[in-house]
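hey can u check if this looks right to u? its 280 residues, i copy pasted from the old doc so theres a chance i mangled smth
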Amino acid sequence: MLKKIVLVISIIFIFQLAFTGSAVAAETYHIVKSGDTLWGIARQYDTNVEQIKQLNQINSDNIKIGLKLCVKITPDQAPVVQIAESAAEDTALIDSAEQVYIVQPGDSLNSIAQKYGTSVEMLKRINNLTSEVLNPGYILKLNMPGADVSRGGNVDRVAAAVLATAKQHLGTPYRYGGSSPGGFDCSGFVKYVFSQHGYNLNRTAAAQCGQGAAVSKSDLQLGDLVFFKCSSSSIDHVGIYSGNNEFIHSSSPRSGGVIITNLDESYYARSYAGAARIIQ
């Protein structure tokens, strides 16, 4: 624990040096003139509007004449940023249950989520973010403390029992709004299965996503819930991870109701939105 604390403090110190020790040389500024737009300024400095917004902590496209905008951070910082990123990776090796990532210029929540096999919604929930704007140097948690990847024997037995119950219902027809063995929709199936083992889950996939501890795709374990955005911009489908990169779920009338599907199947790989651990 002490080693981890010292390392995290070192990460912060290194990154503070990176962003304060050479601020004058590393940052490029532009004074807004009449007729300027963020798009035009971004094009002038070979950057993008989103990065300018992040660097200056602004949410609107409207800019006032005379405003001093930071438009770019030069590569002079790259070696120090790389050291900081390596340190963050070392932290993950020390305690994989508390992984962190230090935001770098040009990063977005979407790019970080894709890199670490999670979702924007999960990152926002873990870090209590209300906006998707990130500033370089921000230490972003990638999963929740407590989502320990090493589980005791009793937890594994519970997960195995949950999956055994789920598999008893393979072939049960899909029924919109269904939450009983006569027919399930996706969240009704998950709620029913977990209720047989003493868990009271929320009724919808989106609400179930807010329960349990968020976990990355690479850390999935038996019994974890996996979430998808299949037909909208919000979470609208859920299943139970069953191992071997597969999950069991009530899919659709056309697909045969309760089935087992591989996470790499193109439709679900595209719509994957994160995972949560209920059994701990």
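The CA atoms of residues 97 and 134 lie 23 Å apart.
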